[in-house]
Write the structure tokens for this entry.
Amino acid sequence: MLENKIPTETIELPSKGFFYEESSPLSSGKIEMKYMTAKEEDLLTNSVLIQKGTVIDEVVKSLIVTKINYDDLLIGDKDALMIAARVLGYGKDYSFNYAGETYNVDLSAIENKTFNTEKLTKGFNEFEYTIPETGNKLIYKFLTHKDENLINKELEGYKKINKDLNPELSTRLKFMILAVDGNRDKAVISNFVDNYFFSRYSRDFRKHLKENQPGVDLKFTTNSGEEVAIPIGITFFWPDFE
């Protein structure tokens, strides 16, 4: 006779729940997830979901036991849940090819990035960044799953107008930046990104984000000593794919 309790694991979010409102279950910094079953494997082979590009999200949603609003998840936290889903489904060992060589990684050993909360306000997803060369003050946020969906829809709209147009970087920046010198008007932000956010400023800002945004450390060291990101390929959730 099967027991009624579904086996689960508690997953620590890279954000520690720091940037979610206190009323959200995500503010606890922990998510309970169940182990993958045939139900989730059905999702993984669903051709409609694969074509839409939502198959991984649907699998992760199906595994989450804690009642949350998936749209509220910060991208870094969602990445951690994706890795946890892979471990709960097919184990911690992940083999992949890089530069003609085969590597094996223990996914359970991947660590969350550290971040400093000293100057941050709990439950608040807004931050300040000053461009050193110009003094322009930006207010920005960490993107969520909902933001990613809106960005993808906007990019699809651009492609319908011009299939060769792919302004992904500038579109992401426009969603991320909430104010320029105190002005929250979207037209002002858009104009700033398109005409005044010079590439060297944008590069430094993205470096700042990389250093401060919560997430998972996906780096590994190659046999030649190069430090690169673990490639998330088709065998990540389809380990038997040939």
In short: The mean pLDDT is 91.
